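Human: You know discrete backbone vocabularies at least as well as I do. Show me how you would write down a chain together with its backbone fold. No explanation is needed for now; the record alone will do.

Assistant:
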Amino acid sequence: MTDNTPVRSADPHLPSMTRGSDLEAATPVATDRRGVDAQAVSLVAVFTALLVAAAVVPGIPVGGLGVPITLQTLAVMLTGLVLGPVRAGLAVLLYLLLGFVGLPVFSRGQSGLQVLSGPTAGYLVSFLLAALVVGLAARLVLRRTRRTLWVPLLVTASFVTTVVVVHALGVVGLMVNLRLPLQAAITADLPFLPGDLLKDVVAVVAAVAVHRAFPDVLVRQARRASTRR
């Protein structure tokens, strides 16, 4: 039996508490909040490390502009698709800050703010926005649609994000830093597009597998928040 006998506080101005149910109801909430915070920090750290690892893998040079094909876009899209907009944005932002302060975490071991004057600047800047956009799309799709629609909808969202965000800003970076005309910048960018679209498919398949195995990452997160209210 649960003892609901009132417990008087030593301070006469504080209200009385009841044993059992009141205390038991309060305890899980605090514990759950600590768990969610720890999970968020861990996921951000893990995916920041993934972004670094993807940049460390040697890229394949394409053309003469110094922009290699790397696994970075795959890692960025996977981060957004798995973590959602906020945590993915934090992971990519942390990755960029690590590189800007001098750690060799960009492609070909580059680091520092000087990369923003190079040919890859537009692509680097696009990573943060791409993670936010595809992360928001992933959160909406996973929480509001049937599982059978996850792959086609997420592939579509990833394709649109890749073209409209990553490659559009990449072209702008080529135009600004290399002073290329628009047509020349688009021509320089096009060889990267088929590979990035293929990487989008790989990222979606991997992210859907993660969410089916661990639905708490995004699917059940909203339900737990509403329950605490």
Summary: The beta strands are 6-7, 17-18, 60-62, 67-69.
